[in-house]
Protein: Chaperone LolA
Amino acid sequence: MKKFVLTGMLLSGIIFSGMAQSKGASDPKAKTVLDGVSNKFKSLKTVVANFILKVEGANNSVSDSKKGTVYLKGAKYKVTLPGQEIISDNKTSWTYAKDVNEVTVNTVDQSSSAMTPAKLFTNFYDKDYLYKLDGETTEKGKVLQNIELTPTDKSKNVFKVIVSVDKKNQSIAKMKVFEKNGNHYTYEITNFTPNTNLSDATFTFDAKNYPGVEVVDLR
Structure:
């Protein structure tokens, strides 16, 4: 899997660019659950969340998993996986690949509808998805409210997303993304720590800490 699909999937959870083509009716009960997640996240100053990203290819052709961490402070974020980092201060973004010791620098497009980690925990669902409550399950002692989201733009590669919300804590516990090509991506939040002390330096890339790094500046 190329770079473990980080740039293509993790930043979004689900990247959908472009406006929705159509809009139908969504389940009010599902909206209540998602609004609860969004409102709780907006009340937090910072978040540090550990996760496991599992990739399953079509017909079980590929199966892999890696652990990572996401740091959030308002619209700023940093995502780390083994050998990879994506950092943004909401003005500039840096994508670092350890295997080639290279960082790609871009300007953040404020008009873009692509999902960022911060948007993932807020009301990303209202514009580009229809959603319905799909019952409750119990996993690892947690009651999960499962919500099925389907994109209103049917041309996109992702055709379904299952979001599992911890009913007690009103936080996303797990998300499974289904692609038309048969690939599945599961993000499981293993630890969620709010309001930690994160300095703004967390959300910038300092080349001095990466000796010999090649900088590819696309701004």
Q: What stands out?
A: Helices lie at 6-10, 28-42, 117-120, 125-128. Residues 28-217 form a domain with the outer membrane lipoprotein receptor (LolB), chain A fold (CATH 2.50.20.10).
